Amino acid sequence: MQKEKLLEAIAGKNRGLLATQIDKQAILVAVAQLEERNPTPRPVEASELLEGNWRLLYTTSGGLLNLDQVPFLKLGSIYQCIRVKDARVYNIAEVYGLPYLEGIISVAARFEPMNERRVQVKFERSISGLQRLIGYQSPEQLIQQIETGKKFPALDFTIQDRDRQGWLDITYLDNDLRIGRGNEGNVFVLTKA
Questions:
Q1: 3-state class of 72 per DSSP?
Q2: Do the beta carbons of residue 57 and residue 189 sit within 8 Å?
Q3: Please, which residues bridge with residue 130 across strands?
Q4: Class for domain 2-192, per CATH?
Q5: Can you tell me the distance from the alpha carbon of 7 to that of 15, in angstroms, rounded to the nearest whole number?
Q6: How many other CB atoms sit within 10 Å of the CB of residue 34?
Q7: What would the pLDDT profile of 157-189 be if each residue is shown by its tens digit?
Q8: 133-156 per-position pLDDT tens digit
Q9: Cα atoms found within 13 Å of the Cα of residue 90, Cβ hemisphere only
Q10: Is 177 helix (H, G, I), strand (E, B) or coil?
Q11: Where along the chain do its domains lie?
Q12: What are phi and psi of 113, to 5 degrees?
């Protein structure tokens, strides 16, 4: 019931882009109520549930939502792909706009469990460019290319800054829904892709 209430609250909000202040408050209440009923008390240890590709349903992250403010670009799907065995996470945002100028913004990171709910995230590589030039077809295909060490004809660089790290608390996890709260106070609601 609480899960359906949250999904209903975020429906039609375009990941938060269309959420009014009142919507945001109602969504945060629904998030908190669902977090109280987390069926996985030790989510970091539930690798079979964490593993896979997740699609963002809702966020309060201005960093992500502001991608939609770039002239001539619209934010497409956003994915977070977790590879538990390798302790890796890939954030992939698809952007659209003028014909043939569809883009991709991706950040690869390592994560380290801090406790049963929190992971430390260290960003390592950023790739931004046109989907056509990169040869982007899907998150899975892009990740395979990144893992083989492929260099892309795009803005493709190693993140050296030691300050480019953060943490994420996984506050709810079931078979197809995950909620996280980040070190900057942002909320993320994702579904299995």
A1: coil
A2: yes
A3: 103
A4: mainly beta
A5: 11
A6: 22
A7: 888 766 678 999 999 999 999 999 999 999 999
A8: 999 999 999 999 999 989 988 788
A9: 22
A10: strand
A11: 2-192
A12: -60, 135
